[in-house]
């Protein structure tokens, strides 16, 4: 049986949910911490106790969305399984997240908020990079097992993510195209794996 959330954890969750609604409805610049506090039913001081700034709160929301989806996949490297099998699971998860309207809406807000203030993006990117470290470690483990070429894990990971986002992120963000349907998702995954593994897999 799952233990009930502590009061402080319930307040934190209420703040996150209120902020998601506010950012999606009004954007980053217009949304104030006062408005988030009122929507969450907590004091402004409570909001700042959990999140020192609006930028930190927004970064936590993006992290929160990814973490809730990433919890469904095992990012441990398994030497008894092929790289393709393991990566297919990861990319399927990634495309599932990129197809969620909440994630896409907030990504638009994040991009709009940072275009005119690039320094604002630094904290957001740093927080999101923490989540990607699990995949970097997966690559390092595959390299140690002799199945992945000796390249910079972060560089290789960025390439793979870029292959996905060419079809399943930027067209939706910048052109308003709909999320990919399942057959197109499968095609993007398999073609991305073909390119990625052709460059980096070591076949024993």
Automatic annotation (TrEMBL):
A GO molecular function held by the record: DNA-binding transcription factor activity
Source organism of this protein record: Pseudomonas batumici
PANTHER family, alphabetized: HTH-TYPE TRANSCRIPTIONAL REGULATOR RUTR (PTHR30055), TRANSCRIPTIONAL REGULATOR TETR FAMILY (PTHR30055:SF224)
Domain HTH tetR-type, residue spans: 9-69
The name this protein goes by in its record: Transcriptional regulator, TetR family
Organism superkingdom: Bacteria
DNA-binding region in chain numbering: 32-51
Keywords in alphabetical order: DNA-binding, Transcription, Transcription regulation
A Pfam match: TetR_N
């Amino acid at each position: 049986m799952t233990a009930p959330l502590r009061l402080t954890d319930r307040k934190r969750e209420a703040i996150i949910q209120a902020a998601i609604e506010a950012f999606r409805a009004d954007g980053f610049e217009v949304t104030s911490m006062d408005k988030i506090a009122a929507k969450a039913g907590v004091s402004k001081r409570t909001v700042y106790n959990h999140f020192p700034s609006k930028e930190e709160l927004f970064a936590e929301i993006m992290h929160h969305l990814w973490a809730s989806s990433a919890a469904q996949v095992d990012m441990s490297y398994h030497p008894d399984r092929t790289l393709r099998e393991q990566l297919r699971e990861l990319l399927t998860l990634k495309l599932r997240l990129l197809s969620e309207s909440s994630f896409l809406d907030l990504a638009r807000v994040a991009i709009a908020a940072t275009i005119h203030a690039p320094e604002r993006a630094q904290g957001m990117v740093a927080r999101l990079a923490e989540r990607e470290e699990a995949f970097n470690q997966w690559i390092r483990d595959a390299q140690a097992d002799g199945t992945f070429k000796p390249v910079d894990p972060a560089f290789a990971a960025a390439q793979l993510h870029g292959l996905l986002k060419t079809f399943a992120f930027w067209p939706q963000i910048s052109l308003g195209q709909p999320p990919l349907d399942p057959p197109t998702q499968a095609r993007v995954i398999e073609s991305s794996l073909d390119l990625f593994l052709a460059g980096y897999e070591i076949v024993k």
